[in-house]
Amino acid sequence: MEDIRLKEKKLFLFDIDGxxxxxxxxxxxxxxxxxxxxxxxxxxxxxTNNSTKSRADYVAKFKRMGIPAEESDFITASYAACRxxxxxxxxxxxxxxxxxxxxRELEREGLHVTADGTRDAEVVLVGYDSxxxxxxxxxxxxxxMTKPSIAYLATNPDLCCPTGFGSVxxxxxxxxxxxxAVGRMPLFLGKPNPAxxxxxxxxxxxxxEETLVVGDRWYTDIAVGIAAGVDTAVVFTGEAQEQELRSTxxxxxxxxxxxxxxxxxxxx
Length: 268
Hints:
alpha/beta; five-stranded parallel beta sheet; 15 strands; globular
C-alpha cells in the first residue's frame, strides 16, 4: 500500500544541496530519477534555501551538471523572500546583507533594496551570504539596535550548508551570531515556512496528495512538508542521520539511504 501511494506522486519537490547534489557533483540516482519523473508525466521542482544564487544562476548551474531546467523549476529562499517582500514591503527600503546575486534578484522584482548601511531602511533582510563581511553584520546590528520596530527577515534558518569537504555556516548560523549581539531572531521566509510549498502547488496546479518533498534535513526539508500537509522522503546523504529516525520531531513518510534508493523504489 505504501509503495502504491509513493508511485502515485506526480510533483516532486527536491532540496538540492545534500539531496541530489553536493557542490556541482550530481549524486548517483538523480539523473535516472529525473528522467523517470519526466517520462511518466510528472514534474520536478527544486526548493532550496540557498540564497547565494538567483533562479537564473541555478539554471546555469544545472546546465553544467547536465540537468535541463528553467527558472520556473526553482522556488528558492530568495524567490520566497521576493514574494513576501512584494506583498508586505513593496514600497519600503530594504537593507540586504546578502550576495550580489540576491540583491540583483530583489531589484529585478522591483523592490527598493540597498547594501549601504548608512541609508535609512524599514526592513532588514539577511541571506546565506558567501560574501559576508564583518561590516555587514555591524550594519544589521546597528539597524536592529537603533530601530527596534524595524522588520527583521531572513531567507532561511539552516545552520550549515553541505560542501565537498563537509559544511560551512549558513544563514541560520549568521543570524545566531547576530542574536548574540542584539537578542533578536528574524522571521525566516524559506523552508520550513510552508509558503514555499504552497508557491509550488499554486504555480504547477498539482494537489497535495500528488506531492512529495525530498530532502536531507529534518528541520527544514521534512518540516516544511509536514507544515504544508504533504508527504515527505528523507535521504541520508546530507545532514540527517539514519539513527535519528526514531528520535526526530519531524518523522518523514519514507526514508532512503540515498536518492538512488528512492529512484529504485519508484522504478520497481
